From TrEMBL:
GO terms for molecular function: transmembrane transporter activity. Pfam families: MFS_1 (PF07690). It comes from Zafaria cholistanensis. Its main location: membrane. This is Tetracycline resistance protein. Residues 29-427 form the Major facilitator superfamily (MFS) profile domain.
Amino acid sequence: MPESQPPALTPPALIAPEPPVLAPVQRRTMVVLVIMQIIGTVGVGVAPSIGVLLAGEVTDNEAWAGLARTASTLGAALLGLPLGNLAARRGRRMALASGWWIAAAGGAILVAAAQWNLIVPLFLGLLLIGAGSAVSLQARFAATDLAESDHKARSLALVVWVGTLGSVLGPNLGVPGEIIHRATGLTVFAGAFFLAAICLGLAGTIVFLWLRPDPLLTLQRASPSTTAPAGKKPNPVRRILAELRENRPARFAVIAILTAQVVMVSIMTMTPVHIAHQGGSITLIGLTISLHIAGMYALAPLVGFITDRYGHRPTVGAGILIFLVSLIIGALRPDGTGWIITSLILLGIGWSFVNVAGSALFSKVVSPQTRASSQGGVDALSNLCGATAAFAAGPLLAASSFSMLSLLAIAVLIPLTALTVSRGHTPKA
């Protein structure tokens, strides 16, 4: 019996605009997502700095520490697609809540790993806490489900932006961790992850209780064309690949998202190690990563406005230029603390321009039938590329220098730059 063919993808240009009656639901959705994102990203922000330092302390081996540093990013990659598929089946509320609770469990495991220097719980905890990164990323797509077509980038950027507070506070949880250490006897790192677990669990509870009605399910009910015909359940990976083969703007958006992630993660992950090798304190490392994360998120509303106003391709181009300035500084002035901090801030801003523009474009042009699964798949692939880049960056830094790492990151930008400049291969949007 011949295999049934999956339903044809609905061209984005033929999708009817969201009915005005959905506007109140969108406003409520944005309020819940904003509160959830602020609280949850406090827990997520622990991994890039305190998690990196804990990995070095527990393993006492650079090779193992490098693998541990990538564990949270790998966890986000492994869980991105399943959480996206869960959203497609059960809605955003169940997917986001489940992701935050998995991350909270990871945070709790890391308390034990930090307290008793346990290697296996360290890897498991970092792997599970990566679910927080996955749902934090998916929240930006949830903001676009019911947004008007010409406001999608701004809605997406707002959710990215509010993560600034949590993501900046997260790397500095070592400070309240010291208070918990004095009060309870937990180590500083264990106290930090204890607070992270509380924040992650609370974020899941908030979205589970109050993200009603569910934005994705509401969109599906309002637009029946957004769901596949009954009885046909094509493989989600196959459908995503078919989408990318047929949809050139979506392909460009994916390349932009992946490139930004590889460049940013490879440099950001190794910066705490580089500063520590130069004798920098945990306070300086936390401040540097906090300023970097502020660069990633603080200008997001402006980037969203620029994207909606001037188009996705010019915004990606601006991000590439900012990336180049950041990496040139890192290559030429790797030993100057002030220069490294400046480079990391610009690295975050460059990521913001490319990622916000690429994500908004993908959300706009992807077909309704693959919306949630494709978004989860792109985030999973993005985190997998980030994990690979972070893992490779460790040996590269050990074998060469921070300058060489910056030069290699510049080389990664070349394909995206060529696609952005070539009008024949990029969308007009």
